[in-house]
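Box 3.1. Reading complex inputs
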Amino acid sequence: ELKVEQNPLFLSMQEGKNYTIYCNYSTTSDRLYWYRQDPGKSLESLFVLLSNGAVKQEGRLMASLDTKARLSTLHITAAVHDLSATYFCAVEQGGSEKLVFGKGTKLTVNP
Amino acid sequence: AAGVIQSPRHLIKEKRETATLKCYPIPRHDTVYWYQQGPGQDPQFLISFYEKMQSDKGSIPDRFSAQQFSDYHSELNMSSLELGDSALYFCASSRAMYPGGNYGYTFGSGTRLTVV
């Protein structure tokens, strides 16, 4: 059974600092997704990573995928307060289109 | 651009009552998924439908049922509601990509169900 682990679960950082969120998964998968969720809101798609070595960047966020290590990272550069949210990675279960989510990383960026 | 529409946005029910949640996928999307997110939890897959047939099933209680209709909208029916059913219920849709996979998922805004 596919398991997805994120760490850290809670992250408090200062504006302007850099940090990385890690997502490990237990079985082979074709696709990995990163989502952002604000409190009580929907899941906003950030990145879809489809192949080994994939790297995508959008603003201060950059995501990468290493399928051999079964590891994805979400790197935050020069954090700003607006990035405060919960970030989820999700992996497609092999043989189905079901997404298995990590527990989420609650990010708080302090001024 | 059209998004995934869920209704209602909020729903308050008493224990043992029934609830029906509706989901209207993006036009031309043929697959619908339902997820349940408890307070402070990650979303958990409940059930999915492809071309009006159930395609996968997760940790959906027997008290819940769902279907996809001819216009591709889907409904999640929940009976004998329990306090623990209080959660955000998300619907997502996708379009199948052959020979496998899809073009990505789009999530709706969710229905917040509160059972009192």
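In summary: The longest strand of chain A covers residues 85-92.
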